[in-house]
Amino acid sequence: MSPANPSGISQRVVGVAESATVAITTKAKALRAAGAPVIGYGAGEPDFATPDHIVAAAVAAAQDPKNHKYTPAVGLPEMRAAVAAKTGRDSGFVAEGGNVVITNGGKQAVYLTCQALLDPGDEVLLPAPYWVTYPEAVKLADAVPVAIDTDDSTGYKVTVDQLEAAKTDKTKMLIFCSPSNPTGAVYTKDEVREIGEWLVANDIWVMTDEIYEHLIYGSAEFASLPVEVPELAERCVIVNGVAKTYAMTGWRVGWLIGPEPVVKGVGKLVGHMTTNVANVSQRAALAAVEGSLDSVYGMRDAFDRRRVKMHGMLNAIDGVSCIEPEGAFYMFPNMQGLLNRDLAGKTAATTLELAGLILDEVQVAFVPGEAFGLPGYARFSFALADADLEEGLARIQALAAS
Questions:
Q1: In 35-147, which ranges are continuous DSSP H helix?
Q2: Which residues of 172-191 are buried (b: 16+ CB within 10 A; e: fewer)?
Q3: What is the DSSP letter of 384?
Q4: pLDDT one-digit tens code per residue, 318-372
Q5: Which domains does the chain have, with CATH numbers?
Q6: I want to staple 239 with a disulfide (CB 3.0 to 4.6 A). Which of 109, 204, 291, 338 is the partner?
Q7: DSSP secondary structure string for all residues of 228-251
Q8: What is the Cα–Cα distance from 361 to 276, expressed in whole angstroms?
């Protein structure tokens, strides 16, 4: 055991940052369990129950002995075919079941994509703010995340000029997410097409995260990169899952869709890592993707109502400004007007410190922008009950006004 590393833990693990979103949600839950009236905006999950017909499918699956055994590591054949059909229906991207791998949630799909495509030293373009898992998955493949800064002045969208400026001869992949976690930004079809054409021209791979495809508001439209630029399909991996759309975060079913070499490579990895995703969860997810979207639209209507309310309340806080998101269920307000000023006799120099101050003073939890690569900002989820949403923001408003 090295004297410089007495714990014996690998440098790979030591170098991975803890998920800030999981950490803040866990802390908020612990405080609530201890009796504190904490309101948390950290969780990236719907507050609704999984729709009844999906739960019923899981109950039936649990009672069927065929689901008590191992199944193919890359997913049930019928689940893979249903995901391909659902993707064609919802985004217009046509794929076969053989291009699909079912994974233990979208996070594993992200991890497996990076493991299958990246070699040590490869660079991955990563528009910031970004979801906390993206850079860690890149680093676990011994590759290098290259952050490209955006902010509220640009609608949190990266431009082709920025991508071109960040590109080097080591650039292997872009990670793209629209609608975005953490900002709720939605790229237009023209913007998606321009980025896709740039990727094709430069022979760069893309992992496009489409997990929020159905959570779109107002006049915004979802656009899929390989649909807008079909020539990109052979250098594109789509990541998606049932977690956000169907309120199934705990069921742990995601997938990736990619060209044959990627699917074969990922199949070898999951064969050693996990074997199949739990069959009961797959059967539930099958009912989800094959079923009606009526319950999804009902949840989206509730999110839209909360989006409007949160946007107004955040902008009413002295020192906070927030552009209106067009997708997902997050807002990413600029919190810089609350820094370095008196708040209940205390001050915070960073949004990381501000998050701790606000949790201590008014029992409200949110994730600071540092976690997403953009200090001075914060992520607030509006996937929580209306009364809690309003109460928590009112507490922050009162603190800022004191």
A1: 52-62, 77-90, 105-117, 133-140
A2: bbbbbbbbbbbbbbbbeeeb
A3: S
A4: 999 999 999 999 999 999 999 999 999 999 999 999 999 999 999 999 999 999 9
A5: 11-49+295-401 (3.90.1150.10), 69-290 (3.40.640.10)
A6: 109
A7: H-GGGGGGEEEEEESTTTTT-GGG
A8: 46
